[in-house]
Amino acid sequence: MNNRPKNLEGLIDKIIKFREERDWKQFHSLKDLCLGIGIEVAELQELFLWKTDKQIENLIKTNKEQLSDELADIFIFLAYLGNDLNINLNEAVLNKIEKKSKKSNSSSPSWSRDGDIAFTALDNADFHCENNSGHETFISAKTGHQFVEAHHLVPMEFQGDFEASIDVPENIISLCPNCHRAFHNSVEETKSSVVRKFYNCRKDLLVQREIEISSERLLEFYKI
User: Fold this and answer.
1) Contact in structure between 147 and 137 (CB atoms under 8 Å)
2) Fold designation for 8-102
3) For the chain, how long is the longest CA-to-CA vector?
4) How far apart are CA 30 and CA 86, in angstroms?
5) What is the pLDDT of residues 10-69, one digit of tens each?
6) Rounded Cα–Cα distance for residues 224 and 158 (Å)
7) Distance, CA of 219 to CA of 47 (rounded, Å)
8) Where are the alpha helices (H) located in 2-152, listed in sequence order?
């Protein structure tokens, strides 16, 4: 009992040492570790499946050891995966909490945007609608150029999901007001089309900015 780790990093080191002593790493591909986490979570979920609130209360009282074992199995797989991905779980969790704290403590419901960065993106597009350069609006009193609006392809409300800033020109599209509304208010087919179009145009530029996202995940951001 006296040799038990007193902190998270010590616990993870003990888990990894346990694996090394048994030479199990040879069986632990990243794919199988990810699947293993899902299986262990499913085993925990099975304990709650089809139970009423009253039955769950009884489960917690009478099966605490089994619940503890299932949670431990999940954590052990997370420790293996974090180690093999060279991700410090302690730092990862603390960083995630800090991101969420910054967002929840903000007086604004959304992440702040830099107007100069948006202007740079519009200027790079020569103040044309990037969805259709033939779309004309009017001359803006503010810029002296055709009026266009800046749209973040990866919406700013999801900044907390990324380490790198997504308020960068590579993530900002110059759009006429009509095309801008299509991203927000059009039917699913139209919205999906414009999101996919600009994802394919910008994905490599986003990667250069360390903004890595799949088309499927981006579509989820737009509730598609």
Assistant:
1) yes
2) Helix Hairpins (1.10.287)
3) 75
4) 12
5) 999 999 999 999 999 999 999 999 999 999 999 999 999 999 999 999 999 999 999 999
6) 15
7) 34
8) 8-22, 30-48, 53-62, 64-84, 89-104, 115-124
Give dist(CA 192, CA 212) in Å, integer: 19
Positive or negative torsion for Cα 178, 181, 182, 186? negative
pTM of the prediction?
A: 0.54
Q: How does pLDDT run across 171-184, given as a tens digit for each residue? A: 999 999 999 999 99
For the chain, domain boundaries: 8-102, 109-221
Dist. CA 37–CA 14, nearest whole Å: 19
Q: Which of these, 176, 175, 179, 157, lies nearest to 167 by C-alpha position?
A: 157
Task: State the amino acid at position 140 in one-letter form.
Answer: S
Listed residue (143, 222, 206) closest to 173, CA to CA: 206
Query: Would you say 106 and 98 are in contact if contact means Cβ atoms under 8 Å apart?
Result: no
Q: 194 is written with which tokens?
A: 């414009």
**Cα gap 73→80, rounded to integer Å:** 11
Burial degree of 141 (CB within 10 A; 0-12, 13-18, 19+)? exposed
